[in-house]
Amino acid sequence: MAKNGDHENDGHMHGEVNKRGRTRRPTMVDVAREAGVALRTVSRVVNDDATVGSELAKRVHDAIAALDYRPDERARHLRLGVTGTLGAAVRQLSHVNPVLRAVERAARAADLMVLAASTEDDERLERRVVESMCRRRFDGIVLEPIGADHGYLLPELAAGLCLVAVDRPVLGLDVDCVISDNVAGIQAAYAHLAAHGHRRIAYVGDDERIFTAQERATAFRACAAEAGAALDGMVHTGPIEPARIVHALATALEGPDPATAIITGNATISVEVVRSFDDRRVAIVGFDDSELATLLRPDLTVVAQDDQAIGSTAIDLLRARIADHNRPVHRVTVPVELLARGSGEQPP
Amino acid sequence: MAKNGDHENDGHMHGEVNKRGRTRRPTMVDVAREAGVALRTVSRVVNDDATVGSELAKRVHDAIAALDYRPDERARHLRLGVTGTLGAAVRQLSHVNPVLRAVERAARAADLMVLAASTEDDERLERRVVESMCRRRFDGIVLEPIGADHGYLLPELAAGLCLVAVDRPVLGLDVDCVISDNVAGIQAAYAHLAAHGHRRIAYVGDDERIFTAQERATAFRACAAEAGAALDGMVHTGPIEPARIVHALATALEGPDPATAIITGNATISVEVVRSFDDRRVAIVGFDDSELATLLRPDLTVVAQDDQAIGSTAIDLLRARIADHNRPVHRVTVPVELLARGSGEQPP
DNA sequence: CCGGGGTGAGATAACGTTATCCCGAAAGGT
DNA sequence: ACCTTTCGGGATAACGTTATCTCACCCCGG
Question: What is the average pLDDT across A61-74?
Answer without folding.
Answer: 93
